[in-house]
Amino acid sequence: MDFLNNLGLGFEAALSLNNLTFCFIGVLVGTAIGILPGLGPLATIAMLLPLTYSLEPVTGLIMISGIYYGAQYGGSTTAILVNLPGESSSVVSCLDGHQMARKGRAGAALAIAALGSFFAGTIATMLIAAFSPILAEVAFLFGPVEYFAMMVLGLTAATLLAHGSFIKGVAMVLTGLILGLVGADVNSGTYRFTFGSFSLTEGIEFVAVAMGLFAFTDIVTNIRGDQAREVTTPSLRNLWLNRREATEAAFPVIRGTAIGSVLGLLPGGGAMISSFASYAIEKRLAKRPQEFGHGAIAGLAGPEAANNAGAQTSFIPMLTLGIPSNGVMALMIGALMVHNIAPGPYVMVSNPEVFWGLIASMWIGNAMLVILNLPLIPLWVRLIQVHYWILYPIILTVCCVGLFSIENSLLPIYFAAGFTLVGCLFWRFRAEAAPLLLGFILGPLMEEHFRRALLLSNGDLAIFYQSPLSIVMLSIAAVMCLVIVLPQIRRGRSVAFTEDA
After folding, report:
1. Rounded to whole angstroms, what are the CA distances from 114 to 74, 239, 402?
2. Global pTM?
């Protein structure tokens, strides 16, 4: 009964006119961003974070989450029609989706992607609603020792699954942890690394870091490759599947949903890892694996379901434990902190309308996306053909206005410009910035739990080896670090990300 009452509270919040409007804006922007190659949800959410300052917490989170899972839908459109992944998780969709389009079945490919994504998103949202309260109850038993160990495990897994070398991933996490130390000490109030600047006493502005590393860096690195794109334009009359196509797509969609729902929980996993795993499994199970890469329906249906399920179940660790599983979830934690809401299991108790309103909005948003993606195909085709040099000046102007509005100061803009240079260096040396953002977000929380644990033990580090849960999580993190040095694992990890690089 409590579950139904809470779900009713969520739909009451999500169905308000204001929240419905921002849910629609979120999925619309997410679809558009997913369609444009190079502009991902991480950069877009970083751009729009200042807007959430003026919104209610649940409204801001509904919009941000809509952008994230909306981008998974939009990315498949570009992959199918142009053979370019609009989003990193859509790389696999290029392999068979575009081949279907070249054979005159672009409409069917788009329908498979949209309907498979809708099914996966609906099931994943049901899993969030069912299992998040259970996991949150377990999280209430955690103390500072367990939280610290869990954050160490999360950062280790995120580093392991980041693109590029493991050493670069470790360096990114450590850099993020160091940046998170800037500002006042959580216990003594002593200023650290402020260099006498009053503006740094509250730390480096999170939005400036995110916008510089992702939004502005994406603009700088993508505008150099702006070029005309050849688009396969489908007829609206061919958007229906025939019986054979529907039958061939059904089981891959179900399997992809299951794979994505599990892998979405892993730190550093989510949509991209899920789509690659689903493609590999479908190819292994296929009676005619030689058809993969030449328009196999299973090669499109499975990964599309997997990336949407993975995107949505990645909300579970963020909502219940306060642990971001990827860069987008780190931005959502930042949005919660802006509104003085501590991420973790207490959100369900102290702000139930935020927790359940967000979950209810995902059902509504997935329904909106099916309506948006199929009838508006001609609009998306025109959007794909827009040149970046038209879009980017507008985006830059809006971003700078948003940064200025944070403190009514130019300082956040200067910080964003500085982190843009850093982001371009990372791009040049093929180092992924997402682990840095995870370290930056989790650093202050890790320090707080670490020092609280030491206060409880009078400074004895043995406290971290006295909790069974802590021992298990720290041991897993240590094993992960050791396993990556094995030659076979290292080679397999490199191959897994070759296509996305």
Report:
1. 9, 10, 33
2. 0.75
